[in-house]
Amino acid sequence: MTQYNKKAKIQQFMHYLLLIILTLFILIPFILGFWTSLLPTADISKGALWSSHISLDNYVTAVTQTPIIRYLFNSLIISIITMLAQIIFCSLSAYSFVFLKFKGRDLLFYVFLATMMLPFEAEVIPNFTTVRTLGLLNHYAVMIVPFLTSAFGTFMLRQSFLQIPGELKEAGDIEGLSHWQYYYKVVMPYSKISIYTLAAYSFLSSWNQYLWPMLTTFSDNFRPVQDGLRQLQSQESFNNWGMIQASAAIIIIPTLIALFFGQHYFKSGLNEGAIK
């Protein structure tokens, strides 16, 4: 028994050691990037990792001399609207595929699901032609309308809705609940963990978009952060690497906040589910 416990402790130690090593591999680039953003550009150009002039000047310069705040605002507007739209439309379509009975429902779902196999790059040209015809180029709408719903989000919520006990639907029918009432009084609260997961996924996916904004936005008034950072780096006068790194660090902050709150609500949902 003692030998078994010793073996178990060694295995546990190796697991934690592996996790620590992987964590370091993930965190070191972030720590190094943040540290670089505190250094003067002259020291960064020399390849120095230490300087006697550690300060937040690069952040002040990034905020005051570049449109980084405008880029952040644009991305927040786009990501929040896209997130809310996907929660609404994906949940409604998933509800239809689970609780509404109509001819060809399963076939329609498989066709809907097949769109996940298409890479986004294959949809760029037809989508660009469509939004150009509609006159949506260089506007918030061009980065929101093509992503109002998601086949992946519908699939994920459908799988979650399928786990709802059939007795709840029967009880709702006995109580006289309409489909709309059953949807927002029973289905949505019961599937809150999946809703939080979809919210975090859609927000981060919209926030990290690069190719589509680069093709469809042409001014700082609508350009999101990822494309905005590329625009700053491409300017001939923008050779302040400390400020570039500070701008990159600022861009990461909202994603970290989204992940933090997403994890918090995810854990809260798991605890509530365990209690139930």
UniProtKB/TrEMBL annotation:
The keyword Glycosyltransferase does not apply. Residues 72-262 form the ABC transmembrane type-1 domain. This is Sugar ABC transporter permease. The chain crosses the membrane at residues 16-35, 76-100, 107-125, 137-157, 193-212, 241-261. It is found in: Cell membrane. InterPro entries: MetI-like, MetI-like_sf. It comes from Liquorilactobacillus cacaonum DSM 21116. Belongs to the binding-protein-dependent transport system permease family. It is a multi-pass membrane protein. The lineage of its organism: Bacteria, Bacillati, Bacillota, Bacilli, Lactobacillales. GO terms for cellular component: plasma membrane. CDD domains: TM_PBP2 (cd06261). Keywords: Cell membrane, Membrane, Transmembrane, Transmembrane helix, Transport. GO terms for biological process: transmembrane transport.
